[in-house]
Write a structure and sequence with these properties.
heterodimer, A: 33 residues, mainly alpha, 1 helix, 0% strand, B: 571 residues, Sodium/glucose cotransporter, 3 domains
Chain lengths: 33, 571
């Protein structure tokens, strides 16, 4: 696996993407209107 | 629907089923039939897991839910990524190391035969009912709006899914799900394009989003601790974690999907694909609903989306009152549409009156929604059989009224494809569990591979017949869908508790966990019949009670508390 090199790294990446999703979703209500 | 739509629908559904049957016509032994050719890559597993979870009702109900109350339902999936990481790190390596066919076979290795049978029985009971509902729920909506006969719709979809699931086993399920998900993605993309193209001149997609946001449909995340709110980030993360952990970790219809992977790596990547894409996918379906809402701000929507029920009553004694409400709703909608124009103009020009215009728009929206609620009340008084909730009919009404022919057929195919893909996984899992945990385990442990393949096909077919029978008679029982959800919540918690003890409490043995599970299940049932508790809480109560009681029983009367074999527990 090129990057992340370990499964643990991949799990952290997945959870990071989740946090990013939550932040973007929370921001949506503030952007519109 | 015209001939083109029927052609698209039938070619899509029958074509995928026939392709699945043809490609999997040669099955080499039980291992192949139940787990596939063991060459499945992560992309197929990822799509298969996603297809199993997304049922027809996902595409009928979810956009309607966004239309009614916004996209906050997406929070329900917030526990899912964490649960999938736990399944990847803890559950999956053990299942693969022990080379089990079913999750309950694992309970037999870790504890004893009775705990295995308890887990398998609870699964068969719950999933057997649910398989009937996954056929019935879309059939009731589609047969009503399309004017089809309900029994023929149930029989048609039921027999189709039974045919290819029995014939091709696990491989056929994987293969058809990949194509069915392809149809789902194409159909959704087409619906998005139509919605954006059909916005009125001068209203950009960003203006559309502003209208959805201005009327409260884009409030996705709710950080409040108010227990009366149905969806908040906290219920999503904690409740969703429990639900997803039971569903992905212990429900054979999902376990069988990822166990068919070529290696541990492929299975893990398939699950992590869902951990990343499930929330965006649900968001996309909800956004589709929010855009349908925006669309209906410019085109007048029906007062009540279940049009067959509305039309049946407009000719009845309450017809006059319903027609008056319909006219008042049309006027209110027109005023709201004009107000949207004023607000968008003010917003675009940066006018200081934009805030006031938005407040006026929100007031106009409340006025039209009040009329809609009043119409629903009158309708229900006139006909007690009509359910006031019409959100399941929102998306299908939009599809049938505004999509071009051909695309209508494709979108109906999307709904059926999603239903077939869930049902095939369920039947596959029910057949496998009956064969592995009951037939081979209790009655015929030493038969030939060919015998087991035949028996497995027979059990899958029988479960198909049970599901179809259940779907045919489902309308006899009122609120059946809710009843099945409640049954699920009553049993899911205890099953998860048993698995958590198995993985994490190595010194707890079979007798202790079996007794704890029985007592926990009894407590849940007593609470269910005597207390007024929201049924989602039973997941937590059942799981917590089972784990705590297991520890107590093991400490007090457990006898043998030497650790279980290292390869059957996580710690």
């Amino acid at each position: 696996m090129p990057w992340p090199r370990t499964w643990r790294g991949l799990y952290v990446l997945v959870l990071g993407v989740f946090v990013l999703c939550v932040v973007l979703l929370a921001a949506l209500a503030h952007l519109y209107p | 629907m015209n001939a083109l739509d029927y052609t698209v629908l039938l070619v899509t559904l029958l074509g995928i089923a026939a392709y699945g049957m043809w490609r999997t016509r040669r099955q080499e032994g039980l291992d192949h039939y139940l787990k596939g050719d063991q060459n499945v890559r992560w992309g197929t597993i990822g799509l298969s897991v996603m297809a199993t979870q997304a049922s027809a009702i996902t595409f009928l109900s979810t956009p309607g839910q966004a239309y009614e109350s916004g996209i906050s339902f997406v929070q329900n999936y917030f526990g899912l990524p964490l649960a999938l990481v736990i399944v990847c790190a803890v559950f999956l390596p053990i299942y693969r190391r022990l080379k089990v066919y079913t999750a309950y076979e694992y309970l037999g290795r870790r504890f004893d035969a009775k705990t295995r049978l308890l887990g398998a029985s609870l699964f068969l009971l719950q999933r057997g009912c649910a398989a009937g509902i996954t056929i019935y729920a879309p059939a009731i909506v589609l047969s009503s709006v399309l004017g089809w006969r309900l029994d023929l719709t149930v029989l048609g979809t039921g027999l189709l899914v039974v045919a290819y699931t029995v014939s091709g086993g696990n491989d056929a399920v994987n293969l058809t799900q990949k194509w069915q998900m392809g149809v789902v993605f194409i159909g959704m993309a087409a619906a998005f394009v139509v919605l954006l193209v059909r916005l009125p001149e001068g209203v950009s997609p960003l203006d559309g989003l502003a209208v959805a946001g201005g009327l409260g449909k884009l409030n996705a995340v709710d950080f409040s601790f108010d227990v009366d709110r149905r969806y908040t980030i906290w219920t999503g993360i904690f409740g969703g974690l429990f639900l997803s952990l039971s569903y992905f970790g212990t429900d054979q219809s999902q376990v069988q999907r990822y166990l068919s992977g070529h290696s541990l790596r492929e299975s893990r990547l398939g699950l992590l694909f869902n951990a990343i894409f499930k929330i965006p996918m649900q968001f996309a379906i909800l956004l589709l609903g929010a855009l349908v809402f925006v669309f209906y701000q410019f085109e007048r929507p029906p007062v009540f989306f279940n049009s067959p029920a509305w039309e049946a009553n407009i000719a009845g004694p309450s017809g006059g009152q319903l027609r008056e409400l319909e006219a008042a709703y049309a006027d209110a909608h027109e005023r709201k549409r004009e107000q949207i124009g004023r607000w968008l103009d003010a917003r675009e020009s940066g006018s200081p009156t934009a805030t006031e215009e938005l407040a006026a728009l929100q007031a106009a929206h409340v006025e039209s929604e009040t009329l809609r609620s009043e119409a629903k009340r009158v309708l229900q008084e006139a006909d007690a059989r009509v359910r006031p909730k019409d959100s399941d009919y929102v998306f299908i009404t939009f599809v049938l009224t505004y999509l071009p022919h051909g695309l209508i057929g494709l979108l109906i195919a999307v709904i059926f494809a999603a239903g077939l893909s869930s049902t095939s996984s369920e039947l596959n899992a029910l057949g496998t569990t009956t064969l592995v945990d009951f037939y081979r385990h209790l009655w015929k442990p030493d038969a030939s591979d060919a015998h087991y393949v035949t028996a497995s096909k027979l059990f899958t077919g029988l479960w198909g017949v049970v599901a179809i029978g259940f779907a045919l008679f489902a309308n006899v029982v009122e609120n059946l869908i809710e009843a099945v959800n409640i049954i699920g919540s009553i049993f899911y918690g205890v099953i998860l508790g048993v698995f958590l003890v198995a993985f994490f409490l190595r010194h707890v043995r079979g007798n202790a966990v079996f007794l704890a599970a029985l007592v926990a299940q009894t407590i849940v049932l007593v609470l269910f019949f005597t207390q007024d508790i929201g049924y989602l809480w039973f997941n937590l109560i059942g799981c917590g009670t089972c784990v705590i009681l297991s520890l107590f029983v093991q400490a007090l009367f457990g006898g043998d508390s030497s650790p279980a074999p290292a390869d059957s527990a996580a710690v």
